[in-house]
Specification:
- Chain A is 69% helix and 0% strand.
- Chain A folds into two domains: 79 residues, no CATH class; 31 residues.
- Chain A contains seven helices and no strands.
- By secondary structure, chain B is an all-alpha fold.
- Chain B has two domains: 79 residues, no CATH class; 155 residues, no CATH class.
- The chains are: A mainly alpha (137), B mainly alpha (252).
């Protein structure tokens, strides 16, 4: 049943958010501490356990996959209901933050890849398999 | 006409599904026709959403973007905290716990250093732009992590809506740059094997950015990068309103 998967997802989120609230109270902050992260961990653990198999395979699994596929549309709706007018005043800030974060992160890739010995390069792509034309890149 | 508006108003969430669906469709057409697939359709859709929210904000002088337009109020429900968190949690489905440990120390190190480094960059820029309250600095830093971690953190610690929007904008800039930049720098940063793809996903973290960037570099690398990237947002959501917020509060 599709609803089983959806219910499992909901249970993970509610449990995670509750744990996050409790953690927030424990730490003495007016904040939900990592509720969403805890919920994600719960889902990963449950999806990986053999006893819960029935809840994450077949139609039940489809119920979870549906919401996973709705993630980008939800983010689009989220973007569309933000206070962008106020953010535009800081437009330069957003740009600088984004650019610097990407540059620094790119630079760290070769550094951290050394941990555990770098992997061997994959064989060159077969031209015929290449799905995206990339002239000019 | 009046009747149509009534129907639309009475079925807000359903209208939102319709409107967002059309927006996503148009975005994928733009992605294919105008950018030849180089900029992922989802990134364009998010940008269109932000642009629409901008013009809606000018028009209504409200603070909730298009959700302040009566017939589009449902977009606010669809993009509200409840649905957003639900969607995020569902993306963790299919990630194997054992797979992360298989990706080894490098994967874990990359996730944490990715979150910390991006956060630090964002927080430093925020301070240099004159923000001095811990909530704003943390939220903008979290936006540099991803456009999900920004609003999740901002909402949790009670940052203002315009700062949250800023954090989304910063995250979107990052996501788009990763998509465009990855194929260009791939050979220079050794991004040609599953191991470095996992490190890459963990460092960048923006799921759509990583998926789009790796797809344009070598489609075989996508699952490896996406796997660590999926954990990145979770780790960011976990650390943002907690450890990172406390650290900023200790300084600010």
């Amino acid at each position: 049943m599709v609803i089983y998967g959806v219910a499992l997802l909901a249970a993970c989120l509610v449990t995670g958010l509750y744990a996050g609230e409790l953690l927030g109270q424990l730490l003495g902050v007016q904040a939900n501490v990592g509720g969403v992260g805890i919920a994600m961990l719960l889902l990963v653990l449950i999806a990986g356990s053999r006893r819960m198999r029935a809840l994450v395979t077949g139609a039940s699994g489809e119920g979870i996959k549906f919401w996973s596929a709705m993630y980008i549309p939800i983010v689009v709706a989220m973007a569309a209901s933000q206070n962008v007018v106020a953010a535009v005043d800081g437009g330069m800030l957003a740009l600088i933050v984004g650019v610097l974060a990407v540059i620094v992160s790119f630079l760290l890739v070769p550094l951290i890849s050394r941990i555990g010995g770098g992997g061997a390069p994959l064989p060159p792509l077969n031209e015929a398999q290449e799905p995206v034309k990339r002239e000019g890149v | 006409m009046e009747t149509l508006a009534d129907v639309l108003r009475a079925n807000g969430l359903i209208v939102a599904f319709m409107v967002v669906g059309i927006t996503v469709y148009l975005s994928y057409v733009i992605s294919k026709r105008l950018t030849y697939g180089r900029i992922h359709g989802s990134a364009i859709a998010i940008l269109l959403g932000l642009v629409a929210a901008y013009f809606a904000g000018l028009e209504t002088e409200g603070r909730r973007g298009v959700a302040d337009i009566g017939i589009l109020a449902g977009v606010g429900v669809m993009g509200g905290g409840m649905m957003r968190d639900f969607g995020i949690v569902s993306t963790a489905f299919g990630v194997q716990f054992s797979e992360l440990s298989k990706s080894g120390l490098a994967g874990i190190v990359s996730i944490f250093s990715g979150v910390f480094v991006s956060f630090l960059v964002g927080a430093i820029v925020a301070v240099s732009f004159g923000y001095s309250d811990a909530e704003s600095i943390t939220t903008i830093g979290a936006g540099a992590v991803t456009y999900i971690v920004g609003p999740v953190t901002g909402t949790a610690i009670g940052a203002s809506s315009d700062v949250i929007a800023l954090s989304v904008a910063a995250g979107v800039v990052k996501s788009i740059l990763v998509m465009i930049g990855t194929p260009m720098v791939a050979s220079k940063i050794g991004l040609n094997n599953p191991h470095s793809a996992m490190v890459f996903g963990g460092l960048m973290g923006t799921t759509s950015g990583v998926a789009g960037g790796l797809a344009a570099t070598d489609p075989r690398l996508v699952p490896y990068g996406a796997m660590t990237a999926t954990f990145y947002t979770g780790v960011g959501c976990l650390l943002g309103p907690s450890v990172l917020y406390f650290s900023v509060r200790a300084f600010a």
